[in-house]
Amino acid sequence: MATSVAGDGYSGLNGVIPEPHTKKMTDLPAELLEHILCFPVLTHVDICNISCSCKRLHDVCHGRGKVWGHQYKLRWPRLQKYYRQNECCDWLREYRTRHVVGIQIRRTVESISKRFFTEVVLGDSFAEIESLGAPEHFCEDELLFILNSDKRKSLTLKYYAKKILYFLRQQNILRSLKTFLEQPPEQQSALEGAVLVDQYCNPLADVTLDSISAQLDEITDKVKKMLRIKNPSHPSLRIAQGDCFVVEDFELQRQVVGALNSVLYEQLQYKGNEFDYYNPLNSYIHQVLLRRTGIPISLSVVYMTLARRLGVQLEPVNFPNHFLQRWCQKPTGSEDIYDFVYIDAFGKGKQLTAKECEYLIGHQVTADYYSAISTTEVLLRMVGNLLNIGKRGEGNEKSYQLLRDSLDLYLTINPDNVQYLLLQARLYFHLGIWPEKVLDILQHIQALDPSQHGAVGYLVQHTLEHIQHKKHPVEPEVKRRSAAEHLEVQYSVGLIMKHKRSGYNCVIYGWDPKCTMSQEWITTMRVNQLSSGANQPFYNVLVQDGTCRYAAQENLEPHSAPLEIGHPEVGRYFSEFSDTHYVANEELQTRYPEDMVETLGTVRELYHRPAPSTGNQDQGPAAEHNSHQATPM
Q: Which CA distances in Å does 42 have to 38, 70, 119, 447?
């Protein structure tokens, strides 16, 4: 049975056929329109155009509505943690702010490369980011967006974005450390302080107090499981997370310590790192838990924290050359050093008497060294270890960074230490960074210790000269391959090479027609033993192992199978990896204006040469063998 429809053989009362009623999109309910406009293929530009088409759609796309909220969350998903669920927010305003911040950050990062290409360490370039006055989480999100873009492209942009993100996160961590130090001593946790030190030295790593605590909770549960086997009624089994409960009975305390040693050193195989003692990773709490090894102080922080969670109070002891913990054996507390057992977390939890502690270091010490110390003193000892590692470094950027970071931390905790203030001023002066800050540090040193006027005066004079020099920058040296003195240079920047003798892979980022190093370096490196000696082109190369080297032309050859070079400084010189070579960025091309053409020509000849055709299929393998022999590599 058919149903009659308007316009299908139907006439009105006056005999006139009515016009069919046409439904428009804007007649749909607002909820359905919002659902349609949240379709993933629509961009913010589409939404802007749609909202301008009529009042109905403009009202549906209002700033606090679902449509702009969806656009915001779709484009910047990492920012969702900064908003409460179902929070009523002006999403259009947030979108505009975040979009503008993104443009400003990108422009600033792009400009840094031109201005700081010749700087060994970026110094005062980050003030511009802070001066934008933008929300910090917006700045960080844009920098992460740059870093997570196409792996092989925008290498220079990523290089500086990473350095800026490093700086911004460190500033936040320093603020958290200052807040931590303002707390009463009894509320300061050695674990929280150690995590802040770890975060400051590794600001790009995902290290949080919650994640570290969760890992320690897992170890605590393992210890409780072992305790339950030995003593099902042990009071430590009833301690919930966050409870401040102390086990008073010494026999019950011994059961906790015994179970802790068994789990930590036998079951989980934690140990002191005797073979790589001066590796800074031994001082970072997240690395100690990951690698299950460390030095006395970092293992002691882990040990003390676990013991406290199980109701046993241990105190940190600043013993020379070997950090320890002490465990009081008297019920009322005592300061007699012989009333304590000293626990060596580095030595698998071995328990020592006061006399046995001296055997660890090979000489006697006064009773003061057996005293308990505060959390602040624990942090100073921990940071002091990192400082010493930085001073022992090889003078590369990595060791300088560790030295800068540890000095920042130490002087945040103890801002009036003249020795380290002077070291910081000398370091900044040596690196040629923050000259104005150097003058401030020197003024502070002079106020604290007038006897330092000789060292202070010398640094003030040369820092003022440096400030004047920066006002008149020197034009970069330009090296053209076509110049007569450069005709012997065979290779060009961006080519991926292999060292014939050492076998390392590298990429060229600079060259000299002759060796420009000192006679002492030439003698030390036995350059005169080469067939052409120092009288041949030498190349600056970034090596796969993270080092920078100066290699003779006769020792280098193009790599037979080009690969990416995992060096932290690649982005400083190159903008892109293009399968067979690196593309020099604008700053490097300015210094070597004819090299990119040469690089492309070399790449075409080496890697894109068409395979030779053969008339007889049976001769294929032989022809392939001959073609390999003909390859100039």
A: 7, 10, 44, 63
What are the b/e assignments for 48-66, b being 16+ CB within 10 Å?
eebbeeeeebeebbeeebb
Identify whether the C-beta of residue 121 lies closer than 8 Å to the C-beta of residue 160: no
- String of DSSP letters for 474-531: PPPP---TTSGGGTT----TTBEEEETTT--EEEEEEEESS--S-HHHHHHTTGGGSS
Task: Compute the CA torsion angle 514, 520, 524, 526 (nearest 10 deg).
Answer: 40
Nearest CA among 297, 349, 287 for reference residue 322: 297
Stated as kind and residue range, the H or E segment containing 252 is: helix 250-261
What's the sign of the alpha-carbon dihedral 275, 279, 285, 287? Answer: negative
User: Which stretches in the chain have pLDDT values below 70?
Assistant: 1-21, 118-133, 242, 395, 609-633
| Packing angle, helices 136-147 and 155-181, rounded to 10 | 140
What is the structure's pLDDT at 140?
87
Whether 442 and 421 have beta carbons less than 8 Å apart is answered as no
Q: Report how far residue 497's alpha carbon sits from residue 631's, in angstroms, rounded to the nearest whole number.
A: 15
pTM, full prediction: 0.83
Task: Quote the CA–CA distance of 441 and 437 in Å, as a whole number.
Answer: 6
Residue indicated by tokens 């090299």: 595
**Given this model, what pLDDT does residue 16 score?**
52
Local structure of 543: helix, strand or coil:
strand
CA–CA separation, 324 and 19 (whole Å): 94
Q: 135: helix, coil or strand?
A: coil
Strands 496-499 and 505-512 come out as antiparallel
With 0-12 CB in 10 A as exposed, 13-18 as middle and 19+ as buried, what is 397?
middle
Give burial (CB, 10 Å; 0-12/13-18/19+) of 395. exposed
Residue 78's CB is within 10 A of a number of other CB atoms, namely: 12
From CA 509, how far away is CA 547, in angstroms rounded? Answer: 13
